[in-house]
């Protein structure tokens, strides 16, 4: 005879089922969710400075849409190209661990997406949270194809600083009245410097200091006595930018999606590619004034540049009366001088990693391989029977790393590497130090011509690397914001003049150096960086001043697979574009 089940069984079963569902939910939260985006590359008419131009955009937005995810999430972005130009997108600062196929630089990790074609970028955000951004990565298309990427901490995780009342994205950019593609195309043909931008922008708006632009002004409305998190991104094409808000001090808490030891400042420098998160504490009472926020260039080179200022307005909302801001005093910020190299060195030196138990700074203490790379400008000879508009009107402007000006191959390097078909695509003999040493920041060599080639450095998996990047004064000392794809690195040292391998390493900071994906080589100076080569693939490294990248200041690292299953480059996706 069957035994009757106890009366309490249904409630036990329900409790077990509920517990099981909770565990599943927790596991899903731990693993992260999958976020889907569709990015249509499309034409869009935009008017700035009384000039209407057809601009290349994502989803007809300028700047482009924000991409929001959490640490641990998988992100899937379907990109459809509706324009005549070839295009790729890069997720700037995302490590792309074993997913180099989704990194985006054209002819490095993929062939570009051609007209009416699509490609799905598919990656997981591992061990990263903070402000990053995405942008086109072919020619100068990123001038208008760009947008913010906000990576929130995992569920139940908090910021290591005060919870803000509100979060605000501030993207700094550049506006050209004419087609930037025509500008760089003509410059590469003539060998001269390209025409500079007509304005800088804050969230796509130039502001009232430019002709015809008072309506196109970004306004940030704030409440007294609150803390705001400003996510600052420099998406400008060719300029490092100072930024300041009149009569306000901010606290820097993050750079390039890495938390920093907090420090206060009333002026910032942000290089193209970099992001900086700051806390803005508003004044406790309504101040009877509005405050300009301004950005203008830091420039130390010898060429022309866009010497103008973009401004937005910080407006306080009155708690009781709706006051018109037109009657309020407008306070103006003081920005450093255009070539304030001393301020820049002092400011960048303030960045320090948290280096605590939760957010350690895993700096390589021992180094397996040391590299010394010069970065700077040079020349290429004019084609026969032609005149050029470069130096002395007898050559073309060029740029190089260790005097090698990088030429893009006609197929993607990552594909050639993966399928063992590198022959005729690239070589692995990139010089680990200058072929001919000289006084890098003093009188340069008589011959300033560069060598052209598609050369890479090969690293064994998990090699600890030290790289010294040395500016040269050939055609003028200049600051170079260098970006390394697929990695963060630690800036262990910086200085002016020529790097001294006997004295300078003793001053390296191996305790809490700043971890970044983009760092500027000082004008007439050097930086030393360290990283573990723990991400297999082909990784682009280049100056984030696009004019210098176009001239050849770029190279590639090839990191071999490691022994473990999660240390190998994944299979190429089936929809990988063809060249």
TrEMBL record:
Residues 1-32 form the signal peptide. It holds the Pfam family Cu-oxidase. It is found in: Secreted, Extracellular space, Apoplast. The keyword Transferase does not apply. Its main location: secreted. Lignin degradation and detoxification of lignin-derived products. This is Laccase. It comes from Hibiscus sabdariffa (roselle).
């Amino acid at each position: 005879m069957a035994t009757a089940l106890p009366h309490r069984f249904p409630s036990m079963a329900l409790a077990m089922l509920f517990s099981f569902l909770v565990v599943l939910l927790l596991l899903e939260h731990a693993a992260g969710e999958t976020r889907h985006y569709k990015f249509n590359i499309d034409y869009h008419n935009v008017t700035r400075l009384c000039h209407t131009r057809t601009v290349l955009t994502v989803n007809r937005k300028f700047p482009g849409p924000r991409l929001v995810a959490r640490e641990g999430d998988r992100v899937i972005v379907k990109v459809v190209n509706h324009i005549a130009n070839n295009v790729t997108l890069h997720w700037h600062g995302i490590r792309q661990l074993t997913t180099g196929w989704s990194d985006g630089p054209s002819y490095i990790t993929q062939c570009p997406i051609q007209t009416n074609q699509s490609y799905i970028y598919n990656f997981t955000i591992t061990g990263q949270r903070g402000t990053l951004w995405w942008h086109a990565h072919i020619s100068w298309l990123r001038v208008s194809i760009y947008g913010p990427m906000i990576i929130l901490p995992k569920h139940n995780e908090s910021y290591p600083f005060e919870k803000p009342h509100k979060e605000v994205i501030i993207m700094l950019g550049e506006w050209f009245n004419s087609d930037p593609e025509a500008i760089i195309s003509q410059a590469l043909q003539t060998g001269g410097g390209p025409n500079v931008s007509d304005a800088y922008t804050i969230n796509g708006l130039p502001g009232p200091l430019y002709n015809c632009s008072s309506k196109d002004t970004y306004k940030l409305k704030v409440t007294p006595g609150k803390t705001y998190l400003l996510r600052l991104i420099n998406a400008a094409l060719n300029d490092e930018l100072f930024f300041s808000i009149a009569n306000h001090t901010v606290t820097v808490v993050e750079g390039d999606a890495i938390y920093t030891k907090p420090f206060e400042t009333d002026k910032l420098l942000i290089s193209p590619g970099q992001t900086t998160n700051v806390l803005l504490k508003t004044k406790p009472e309504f101040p009877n004034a509005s405050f300009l926020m301004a950005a203008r260039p830091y420039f130390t080179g010898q060429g022309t540049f866009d010497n103008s200022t973009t401004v937005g307005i910080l407006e306080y909302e009155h708690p009781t009366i709706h006051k018109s801001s037109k009657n309020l005093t407008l306070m103006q910020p003081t920005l450093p001088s255009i070539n304030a190299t001393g301020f820049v060195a002092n400011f960048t030196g303030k960045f320090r990693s948290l280096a605590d138990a939760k957010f350690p700074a895993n700096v390589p203490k021992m180094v397996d391989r040391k590299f010394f790379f010069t970065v700077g400008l040079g020349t290429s000879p004019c084609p026969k029977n032609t005149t050029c508009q470069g130096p002395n009107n007898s050559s073309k402007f060029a740029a190089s790393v260790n005097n090698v000006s990088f030429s893009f191959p006609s197929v993607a390097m990552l594909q050639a590497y993966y399928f063992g078909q590198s022959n005729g695509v690239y070589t692995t003999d990139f010089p680990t130090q200058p072929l001919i040493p000289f006084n890098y920041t003093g009188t340069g060599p008589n011959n300033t011509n560069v060598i052209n080639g598609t050369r890479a450095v090969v690293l064994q998996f998990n090699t600890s690397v030290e790289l010294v990047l040395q500016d040269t004064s050939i055609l003028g000392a200049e600051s170079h914001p260098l970006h390394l794809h697929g990695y963060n690195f630690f800036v262990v040292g910086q200085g002016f003049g020529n790097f001294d391998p006997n004295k300078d390493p003793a001053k390296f900071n191996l305790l809490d150096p700043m971890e970044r994906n983009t760092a500027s080589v000082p004008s007439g100076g050097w930086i030393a960086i360290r990283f573990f080569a723990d991400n297999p693939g082909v990784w682009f490294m280049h100056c984030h001043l696009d004019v210098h990248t176009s001239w050849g200041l770029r190279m590639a690292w090839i990191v071999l697979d490691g022994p473990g299953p999660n240390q190998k480059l994944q299979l190429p996706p089936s929809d990988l574009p063809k060249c």
